[in-house]
Input
Amino acid sequence: MTERTGFGSKLGVILATAGSAVGLGNVWRFPYMAGENGGAVFIMIYLACVLLLGIPCMISEFIVGRHGQSNTARAYSKLSGGSPWKLVGYMGVLTGFLITGYYAVVTGWCLQYIWASFIGQLQGTPDYFKTYFAELSSDPVRPVLWTFVMLGIAYLIIEHGVRDGIEKASKMMMPTLFILLLIIVVASCMLPNAGKGIEFLFKPDMSKMTGDVFLSALGQSFYSLSIAMGCLCTYASYFSRYTNLTTSATQIAIIDSVVAILAGLMIFPAAFSVGVNPDSGPSLIFITLPNVFSQAFAAIPIVGYFVSLLFFVLLSLAGLTSLMSLHEVSTAFFQEEFTLSRKKAALIVTISTAIIGAFCSLSLGATDTLVFGGKALFDWFDFITGQIFLPVVGFLTCIFIGWFVPHKVVREEFTNWGTLRSEWYARLFHIYLFLVKYICPMAILFIFLHQFGLLK
Amino acid sequence: MTERGNFGSKIGVILATAGSAVGLGNVWRFPYMAGENGGAAFIVIYLVCILMLGLPGMLSEFIIGRHAQANAARAYDKLSKGRPWKFVGYLGILTSTIILGFYSVVAGWCLQYLYIALTGMTSGNVDAVREYFADFSGDAMKPAILGVLFILITQFVVVRGVRGGIERASKLLMPVLFVLLIVIVVASCMLPGALEGIRFLFYPDFSKLSSDVLLEALGQSFFSLSLGTACLCTYASYFSNDTNLLKSAFQIVTIDTMIAVLAGLMIFPAAFSVGVNPDSGPSLIFITLPNVFSQAFASMPVVGYVISVMFYALLVFAALTSTISMHEIGTAFFTEEFTLRRRYSAWVVTVAAGAICVLCSLSVGGRSWLQITGVALMDFCDKITANIMMPIGAMLTCLFVGWYIPKRTFYAEFTNRGMTNQRWFMIYLFAVRYICPICILIIFLHQMGVV
Output
């Protein structure tokens, strides 16, 4: 076997992995959650959850991946010594594979919206935006084509390999994403009455703190860092021996949180300035915000035009960096397990996920045959991967690292074979081990039960 | 001798060197020049000048510095086979120390304005601001102390070495500078009537293009990259053998130009939105703009406050990355030639530049004993470095690299020993041999008022 190429620089490691963590959820989920659930108080609790759950889970996956120096499935089996723990790796790959398909559909919509804002279609009444999105998502052709385009772009990047493809693309896309975000934030905060939106996002409200809110923060900290999809594990297999896993995980979590908070500063000032109530999920970015932007900048149409164009470019970049990492999970798997060339492996993944994506897209209104038990195929995928696979893989990974893998191996990876400052990291390692053994599995269990309404 | 420090990463090379090129001139000189002299037409001419003069000039210094892996004086000496070319290096070190001295005065003013922006006192009408500036800059104590403080901050970075000090500081300061710039640009462009300002900056007006404008563009492309101060030569001595000189130079000029254009997008939309005519030089940033910002954001005082703080923070950072590079030239020289410890040689530079700084600062208040040939010492230092020392240093550097050193050495450094860029070699040799010296001569004569 030829030698695997890894990431070429520390910056590449951080940007690529942060790119995987920063996705549409940072824009459409976190800000609304924070605003609704107590502002600054929620953000503090969220950061605590990231510290106690997110970062330890990230490090665990990093450990599996870097130790294995191979795709997720093989990385788990290397550490499992032939026991059925290796199934967790296979499940991780499957999760990543399935998410790739339906995530590509959503990012495909972003591309359509880039096009629409480019030719100036995104102007009109609130109802216009509602019908526009309904028509688009139930269209049998356009969204499917955009899904293919998005996967095609991911293919072109992945095919170039880790260093020349993923790392190079991330080094370009992540700074661009950040600059676009900053531009829209400033434009949004300059609007009259922007202060109200900022107040909504940050004003601490202790009365909102309930057990429910706490569990939501816990869930968000778990989902936001792309834990348990095989992404972190796969990317970590491209880290070098010198990559400090703890500081990398912390830096990535910081970037992820900063982007999420900035996204709130982009959305709320504009929404409150025109008196529109923000919401969350796809309807926020595809219905509410196009309307908000076209109204908020009505006085200077050219600015409105650019802001909505830049906004959808930003979303597409955020989506693409995540899609890339998901695609890489399966590509690495096929390449190494079936000893295929990278090109062939990537092609297999692109084509098969394109088929999944096409069915998911069609299930949203184009045909009734893809609706099962009252739920469209698209939502089934979301449900199965998001609500079941992710918590299960995350839970099992923590148990695996915390209880099954010899502590010596974990410690070696954690401290880079003892080269990191010994006392400090020895102490840190104990804290980490405690979190992974007890706190993380329990927290994930709570998230799991909470989703099914078993915990109130 | 212990091993020399060097830059640890490609991005460090680019950001540190771009930091040395990006300074106050990008903010107070280029935008106004572009707007007055034909907008987009001027920018195009400027880019041509950069390609013809800036890039080759930069490359010449890079070649000397990286080949020698030593401070400016020894670098010239190593290639000169016993001839006194090392005096070009000495000249560069002297030039940069003088510039560090009077540049710090202005940087100290930026510190003071950052402070008053933080305490929220920049508002007021234009006459009040003008009076404030005249009072403050003419003061005996405060500006001198702030200038020296700025040199000490610079020293604080420089003593930490190339990788732990300069590279690390640049990696932090340059991205922050860029982010601040973007934020102010967007805020400025969102103001009502901002389009007028954008028009002023970009609207191409070919009727404005005269030979005078061409000379201005040529001069700006020369001064913006701090050619002739041995600064690029010193930094290049910390490059690795794999650093692609042509590509790095290209990226650095791109950053430098982009920041200058963005600075225009920061200044003009705000100025035109409140109907104030922009100008250039220190009066732009210390008198006109405080007034512009306080008027433009009058309806949102919080935004106005944040913008002024960010603006002066931006100026401080832009100045700091430049003073660091000028300080390093002298520090490297004393460290290596007198085998001093880095800490002591940094003190030598700080004391020398600090003395110049104090005298320059005092001369601003119109004290007659600090006037040389009828101009204040501050302006005298500015004139003598910009009009005489820098052109001479750069001219001799081009002649040295183009005609004196073996073509083999030039080729080896330019192509990384035959690895890259071979096809550009002849073009650059030609530029360094003929175009650059002629251009610099023209700039020199233009500055003296002959052309």
User: Anything to note?
Assistant: Residues 180 and 426 of chain B are 41 Å apart (CA to CA). The domain at 10-447 of chain B is CATH 1.10.4160.10 (Hydantoin permease).
